[in-house]
Amino acid sequence: MNDLQKEMLTKLKEIIPHNGLIFSESDTNKEILCKPKILPLKSLTLLKLEELEKQMLNQIKDKPKDN
User: pTM of this prediction?
Assistant: First the structure.
């Protein structure tokens, strides 16, 4: 900082409003992160659909050909 900047900073006055809201920053309102939730890679519905698909494929394979 040069001398002019230092001089300007010393001349600045703090202005406090007489009415209205006053905003201030404090460390009390820090964000708190939750623990990560472990989710299954496949949903129950997808697992059921895959099981049904396997059953259908097995039924098709087991069916004798009528040609």
Answer: 0.37
